[in-house]
Amino acid sequence: MIQETLAPAIRVRDVVVGFGQRVVLAGVSLDVARGEILGFVGGSGSGKSVLLRTIIGLLPKRSGTIEIDGIDLERATAEQTLALERRTGVLFQHGALFSSLTARENIGFAIREHLRLSEQMIDDIAIMKLAMVGIKRKDVDKYPAELSGGMTKRVALARALALDPEILFLDEPTSGLDPISAGEFDVLLRTLQQTLGLTVFMVTHDLETLNAVCDRVAVLADGRIAALGTVVEVKHSNHPWARAYFAGRRAQSLAARLATATA
Amino acid sequence: MLTETAAVDQLHLHVDQSGGQTVMRAVGAWVAESAAVIETEFGLVLGHGAPLPAEHHAILDLSRIEKLDTYGALLITSAVERMRTRGGTLEVLNVPTLFASLLQTVGSAWQEPPPPAAQVSIVANVLDRSRSGIVGAGRDLLVLLDMLGATAHALAAVVARPATFRSTSTVHHLDRVGLQALPIVLLITILIGGIIAQQGFFHFRKFGADEYVVDMVGILVLREIGVLIVAIMVAGRSGSSYTAELGSMKMREEIDALRTMGLDPVAVLILPRVIALVIALPILAFLGSMSALLGGGLVAWLYAGMSPEIFIARLKEAITLTHFQVGIIKAPFMALVIGIVACAEGLKVKGSSESLGLQTTASVVKAIFLVIVLDGLFAIFFASIGM
Q1: What is the pLDDT of residues B5-36, one digit of tens each?
Q2: CB-CB: which of B70, B354, B355 is closest to A164?
Q3: For residue A27, is it left (φ>0), alpha (ψ between -120 and 50) or beta?
């Protein structure tokens, strides 16, 4: 593809992040190509979310460079930063919905701020985005406090997708979803990725999502990228954590199920 | 002519109505940035809202579309759906294979947004609001009585088994609402006492009644102002913090967690807070009153030239123990009202941060209102028993 010859969508070089005495990321380097879905795995507390938050500029780094779309956020002008924020969408682990707005208003908020559209169209878009992630029409006017955990996640995903971003950051998008919804989410993500050329950086523990949608998988261990490649490559890498992760009992039972399903 | 061509090039819809049929050709990028323009163009061509001629039929040709995202797809889908609800048809032709699945996804997600809420007449609205206001006030009263009852019940349980009393928590709250409130209470009451004395001297001097300023300051401060000012300050300072604390505990399910451990939230959280207030407020009211008298004395000395000896001698003649009793008896009752209101409002907080703000405001407003109402009731009571 032509796109692969262009600069990577996300370029991370030797990034070091720490809190006080503790160094969480000790020199992480990573490229995410345009139109790629990169799954990011690692043990609890290994710093996956820290890397994601550092890339989107919420956490300061001690050294290293991060470029999104060829733009270094530290050196970018205010306009470049704004344009970049318009082209990226973030799904936070716990949703981070605005608690004083309804689900529909949560989606409409970003649209209203960035695009000059009629109220009717903003409503249409908001309801369509919510329907895409499986929120029924009777639920669109509920407040976040009235939504279940899984629904909160879906509304947050719809909000991350509200402006049709080119780059999507997802922090554990399918945790808290039932397996059927998680499967639907995988399909949706694939559809959007194919039609819009989305680049997705996804922190996840969902083995099915990793298998179904991720082009490549990166494994974070000891503050570094321990393995990087397709699911099959990572599965056969030498890193003990990666092997244990993909060859554990849950992964085995999944593999067995997939085998019987295709047979 | 040149400018016209340029304008046509920027259009996203090329319309051809020559063959007795509306044929629209979608051109260029149908994405979020151009959605506002395309929406207007669609509106112009299809005349949204206007009645349609029978069997109206239009064609939308997508063969020359270059970029499409969910915004563009939604515009197409909504145009098709709205044409159909108005009795016409809009046929979409030549969908590029690249965009087919996106159009399908958006198409299956399309839903007509719910109609906006019907306009209610102003009179009905006012009546409805006053109805819910009255019902709400009644319900509030019940909630307060419920909280008072629950606190009394928890107190009775503690009296029956004194070992269960949470003394550490009570002392902690006593420090927060009592000791830590002292500096600001003393500062404000000394100012209030001084201001009352200054106004008194300024106006009473006109008819030579300087001496009676001391009577006025003494009686006013001990009977009314001292305790009232302190109670209002405590409602604003400590009542609001009680509501916010309990409210955020409610939001984060901490109160539910207590309940599942077999603990009574009223006994654990509310009783120590209310007891701390009931102990602290009389002390603060007493110290506040003394500070107000001091302020009055200082103004009398520095502003009106009345020596401290004369001020104190005059004060001894003017006030009796009764005046002091009338003031200080009210303090624990006001503390009870403030504590009960603050805790009840805190437990009413729902999931959103907005509701936390609303309940904190309501707590302070209601507590101050009830403190003043209570003061009025006490005034009637003391007048009728001749105190």
Answers
A1: 344 456 777 777 776 677 888 888 888 888 88
A2: B70
A3: left
